[in-house]
Amino acid sequence: MVYWVFGYGSLIFKPPPHAVEHKAPGRVVTVIEAREWHMLEGITVSEGAISSDDYVWGMAYRIDPQYEDEVKTYMEYREKNGYTCHFVPVYNASPDGLEEIAVVDNAEIWIGKLDNPAFIGYESLDNLARIISERSGPSGLNKEYLYKLAESVRQLYPHVRDEYLFGLEAAVRALEEDDY
């Protein structure tokens, strides 16, 4: 079996090591299961009801087979804080653009779970923007991570309008302007 990793967030612009091929755009159900996300928003969604807003665009990476074990160890370490490994198909538009087809049958994805002690839960966009504008982590400023992600999504998927991501980016930038 060919080993594929599907990533969102920093995995879009910071791929795992030994990736020998990537496919973009790739799309899978959101990194937190849609039903759980809607529950946090206070919205009840019937079983099987998924809207186009419930998909995540990301990047699928095919890993060089000789490094598969190394990359699996890397991904387990990178996603260790409350994420669980799942395998999903990744879709892309057909050559004529009229339908979506599976381009990878079985890609690894790491999904956050609500019972993770590090998961904060749903926050208002304004509160989240304030936190992101003020904080940093081992990889640098949180706002720089957000800006890289938003720019990567714009560059890779110009036909996609991720309202939540772009709204959060705008809110953080507005806070920056207020500081000047």
From TrEMBL:
It holds the Pfam family ChaC. Signal peptide: none annotated. The keyword Lyase applies. Keywords: Lyase. Its EC number is 4.3.2.7. PANTHER family: CATION TRANSPORT PROTEIN CHAC-RELATED, GLUTATHIONE-SPECIFIC GAMMA-GLUTAMYLCYCLOTRANSFERASE 2. This is glutathione-specific gamma-glutamylcyclotransferase. The lineage of its organism: Eukaryota, Fungi, Dikarya, Basidiomycota, Agaricomycotina.
